[in-house]
Amino acid sequence: MLTDAIRHYWSGDFLAANAFIGINLVGALLLGMLVGYERTYHGRAAGMRTYGLVCMASTALTIFVGFAPFWYGGALSAADGDPTRVVQGVVTGVGFLCAGVIMKDGLSIRGLTSAASIWAVASVGVLLGVGFYAAALLLALLCAVSMALLHRVEARLPGRATLDVTLTFRDGYVPRLDDFARDAEARGYQILRDSLSIAFADKQPVWKFGVVAVERSRAVSPALLAEELAGTEGIVNFTIVPVRN
């Protein structure tokens, strides 16, 4: 009966199941943020928001399987099929969609948080579809809070900012990486040597590399770096782009 199914959603056991799922979602968000902060601190593209969202969505897609008797108001029987197969198809399809919003420009990788949030919203839809309305609402709220506030939290925590630097040298000038590395260290930055790429345009060498602030609060600002590069002999053009996700 439909009334029995509706009554099921307000039973004590069902509400307890939603509460248990909610506690696990909050714990997953915190643990994901913990791991993500380590990446944020070292200036990597994926940070607290991305890791928190992915960890929380993975928990949502895993934990609801353990409460199969509560799915669809308790009206699902073994003969009705296995909804987890549908979930697998949803997650796979959304994964392709998420890949389309991620773009790489130099060291900057944009769209990671958007992709993670899309995947997390798919988890909200799965929880909603099987009837865990309170857990779905909590997951949606946690996702919104993560995307709105964690960026500010990341900015206040100690960390290492990463810059994507492109230098164009005049024809005939021979740049030396060791000299740039010493100058960068004197200004609070460390050159990521494995990120160096060298090209030639109009007979001018063009270097692209990343630099990471040893301590974000003590490093010279990008604006001041630009002023110094503008007066550096041998450099005719340059760009400084903060690495974002």
**Mind describing the biggest β-sheet?**
4 strands, antiparallel
Low-confidence stretches: none
Helix/strand/pairing class, anyone?
Answer: alpha+beta
Mean pLDDT: 78
Spatial order of strands in the largest sheet: 4-5-3-6
Q: What pattern of helices and strands is seen along the backbone?
A: HHHHEEHHEHEEHE
Number of helices: 8
Annotate the secondary structure layout:
Blueprint: H1 2-8, H2 12-41, H3 48-63, H4 83-100, E1 103-105, E2 108-110, H5 112-130, H6 133-156, E3 162-169, H7 177-186, E4 189-201, E5 204-213, H8 222-230, E6 235-242
Antiparallel strand pairs: 1-2, 3-5, 3-6, 4-5
Helix pairs in contact: 2-3, 2-6, 3-5, 3-6, 4-5, 5-6
Description of the molecule:
With 245 residues, the protein is α+β, with helices and mostly antiparallel strands. It has two domains: 2-156, no CATH class; 162-242, Alpha-Beta Plaits (2-Layer Sandwich), CATH 3.30.70.260. Helix content is 54%, strand content 18%. The chain is built from eight helices and six strands; from the N terminus they run ααααββααβαββαβ. The chain has helices at 2-8, 12-41, 48-63, 83-100, 112-130, 133-156, 177-186, 222-230, and strands spanning 103-105, 108-110, 162-169, 189-201, 204-213, 235-242. Helix 2 packs antiparallel against helix 3 and helix 4 runs antiparallel to helix 5.
